Amino acid sequence: MLICGCLALVGLSGMAYSAPLPKVNCTELSFKQSDGSEDPYSSGTSCLYAGKSLAESYQSYREESLSEDYGKSLRKNIPSMVNYNDTITDGQLWISYKWNSPDNLEVELAFAGGVTTVEFKQSQSGTEIRTIASAD
Questions:
Q1: Rounded to whole angstroms, how far apart are CA atoms 136 and 83?
Q2: Strand pairing class (42-50; 84-88)
Q3: Rounded CA gap, 61 and 116, in Å?
Q4: Dist CA 129 CA 42 (whole Å)
Q5: Per-residue pLDDT of the chain (136 residues; tens, 9 = 90+)
Q6: Based on C-alpha coordinates, what's the Rg of the chain?
Q7: Is 34 exposed, middle or buried (0-12, 13-18, 19+ CB in 10 A)?
Q8: Which residues lie closer than 8 Å to 65 by C-beta, 6 or more apart?
Q9: For residue 32, what is the DSSP state?
C-alpha cells in the first residue's frame, strides 16, 4: 500500500516547506485477461482522498499531474454535471469528461499509445480516485 501525507511547496523566499494534505491511501490494482493470466497491458491505482469532496480531489489530482504533459491539459474547473470533450495538441490527446452522477465523474484520456481512465467517486468518507491505464 502507498501512503502519501504531504506536498512539498516552495515559498516566496525560495525555501521549500511541506504543507499537510489529508492522508491519501493508495493501492495498486491488478487486471486479469480472459484466460486468468495477468494483463501486461493494463495497470492502475485506487486512492482514497479522505475527507475531500470530488471537486477538491480533482484539483489535487490535477496539481499532482502538472508535471506530466496531460496534466497541463486537464481543465482547471469542472462545473458539476456538464460533460466535455477536448482535443489537445493537434489531435494527439483527447480528453472526455463524463458525469455518471453528481458524485461520480469519469475522465478519459486517449493518447496515441492507449487510454487512461480516471474515475472520481465521492462518498461520506471522501473521494476515491481510480486510475486505469490500458495500452493499445
A1: 25
A2: unpaired
A3: 14
A4: 16
A5: 344 443 333 333 334 433 444 557 899 998 898 999 999 889 999 999 999 999 999 999 999 999 887 888 999 988 789 999 998 877 789 999 999 999 999 999 998 889 999 999 999 999 999 999 998 8
A6: 16
A7: exposed
A8: 71, 74
A9: B
Beta strand segments in 30-103, E? 42-50, 84-88, 93-101
Q: Which residues contact 103 (CB under 8 A, 6 or more apart)?
A: 54, 121, 122, 123
Cell numbers linked to 18: 511541506
Residue listed under C-alpha cell 484466460: 35
In this structure, which amino acid lies at residue 10? Answer: V
Q: What single letter denotes the amino acid at residue 45?
A: T
Which of 107, 110, 103, 108 minimizes the C-alpha distance to 125? 103
Cα distance between residue 79 and residue 97, in whole Å? 10
CB 92 within 8 A of CB 70: no
